[in-house]
Write a structure and sequence with these properties.
This protein has 150 residues and is α/β, with parallel strands linked by helices. The protein has one domain: Nucleotidyltransferase, domain 5 (2-Layer Sandwich). 41% of the residues lie in helices and 30% in strands. The chain has a 5-stranded mixed β-sheet. A hairpin with a 4-residue loop joins strand 1 and strand 2. Helix 1 packs parallel to helix 3. It is globular and about 40 Å long. The protein starts with a strand and ends with a helix.
C-alpha cells in the first residue's frame, strides 16, 4: 500500500446550474486511465466536482492507497472536515438545514471507505498537467452527454 494511485479530478457546468461534466485521471506506476462523463440536464458544479472522485474511486478494483487531488475546496473540506458532523447531525448542517448533495456525499464516503485516501487541494488552471487534463475530460464528458461533437 506504499505505492499510491494518484488521481486528479475535476467537474463543472456551463452554465451553473445546467449541463455538466466530470473528468478523472488515474495514475499508478506506468498505467494511466482517463475517465469522463456528464449530465445533459440540470446539474451543478458541486455535483460534478463530487461525481469525479466517486467515479474514480469506484473504478479501483481493490483497496489501495490513493492520493486524490481536487481543485474544489467544497469537495476537499466536505470529505475531510464536514461530512462526519453532517452524518452525526442526521445530514443537517450546523444551521439545521438539509445537506445539499447528500446522495453524493454518502456515495463518496462509501467509495473512500474501501481505500486509504489522502486528499489534496490543487489550484485550478495553474498549469498542473493532470488537473488540466481532468478539466479537458470534464468538458468532453459534458459535450458527450449533450451529444455535442468535441
Amino acid at each position: 500500500m506504499t505505492d499510491p494511485v494518484i488521481i486528479h479530478t475535476d467537474g463543472g457546468c456551463r452554465p451553473n446550474p445546467g449541463p455538466g461534466g466530470w473528468g478523472a485521471v488515474l495514475r499508478h506506476r506506468e498505467h494511466v486511465r482517463e475517465m469522463c462523463g456528464g449530465e445533459p440536464g440540470e446539474t451543478s458544479n458541486n455535483r460534478m466536482e463530487l461525481t469525479a472522485p466517486i467515479m474514480a474511486l469506484e473504478a479501483l478494483t481493490r483497496p489501495v492507497l490513493v492520493h486524490l487531488y481536487t481543485d474544489s475546496t467544497y469537495v476537499r473540506n466536505g470529505i475531510t472536515k464536514w461530512v462526519l458532523g453532517w452524518e452525526r447531525n442526521g445530514w443537517l448542517t450546523a444551521a439545521k438545514q438539509p445537506v445539499k448533495n447528500v446522495d453524493l456525499w454518502q456515495r463518496l464516503q462509501a467509495a473512500c471507505s474501501r481505500h486509504e485516501v489522502e486528499w489534496f487541494w490543487v489550484k485550478g488552471h495553474a498549469g498542473v498537467a493532470d488537473n488540466e487534463l481532468a478539466d479537458v475530460l470534464a468538458t468532453r464528458g459534458m459535450q458527450e452527454a449533450m451529444g455535442v461533437a468535441g
